[in-house]
């Protein structure tokens, strides 16, 4: 990757984080939505939601540190864990609320033999 321009490296960096955030959503909606619904949700998240959150934080937007924020307290996220996990977690929460409970999953509890 040493001969790639910095824009290509930046794109790959953001692609990795964006795909991780979209993958977190799959854990929250597992067994509740079909594959096509998850693909549509992932496309919406990667095109509209994640880029806006990144622009607000890493793109020196209104949430970034160093701007004139409330009480001069901005958001600092050096490695991306906050952006990725909060975006993915909120997306999973919204998806789980919209999808509703797992109907029929726990209607007939049965005893089973452990391994």
What does this structure look like?
The chain is mainly α. It has one domain (18-99). Helices cover 57% and strands 0% of the residues. It has helices at 6-28, 35-57, 81-99. The longest helix has 23 residues, at 6-28. The model has no long low-confidence stretch (mean pLDDT 83). It is a multi-pass membrane protein. One of its GO terms (cellular component) is plasma membrane. InterPro entries: Ammonium/urea_transptr, NH4_transpt_AmtB-like_dom. Residues 9-115 form the Ammonium transporter AmtB-like domain.
Q: How would you spell out the order of helices and strands? A: HHH
Binned, the helix content reads: 55-70%
General form: elongated
Percentage of residues in strands: under 5%
Rg computed from alpha carbons, rounded to a whole number of angstroms: 19 Å
Q: For the report, how would you describe the main beta sheet?
A: none
Give the mean pLDDT: 83
Uncertain ranges: none
Number of strands: 0
Number of helices: 3
Estimate nothing, just give the exact number of structural domains.
1
SSE-based structural type: mainly alpha
Question: What is the first-to-last residue Cα distance?
Answer: 47 Å
Features:
elongated, 0% strand
List the helices and strands and how they pair.
Elements: H1 6-28, H2 35-57, H3 81-99
Quick gist of this model?
The chain has 3 helices and no strands. By secondary structure, it is an all-alpha fold. 15% of the residues are buried.
């Amino acid at each position: 990757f040493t001969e790639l321009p910095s824009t290509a490296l930046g794109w790959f960096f953001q692609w990795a984080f964006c795909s991780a955030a979209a993958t977190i959503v799959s854990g929250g909606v597992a067994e509740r939505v079909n594959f096509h619904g998850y693909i549509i949700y992932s496309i919406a998240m990667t095109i509209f939601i994640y880029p806006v959150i990144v622009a607000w934080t890493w793109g020196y937007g209104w949430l970034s540190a160093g701007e004139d924020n409330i009480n001069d307290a901005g958001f600092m996220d050096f490695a991306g864990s906050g952006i990725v996990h909060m975006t993915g977690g909120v997306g999973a929460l919204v998806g789980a609320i919209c999808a509703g409970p797992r109907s029929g999953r726990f209607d007939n509890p049965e005893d089973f033999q452990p391994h």
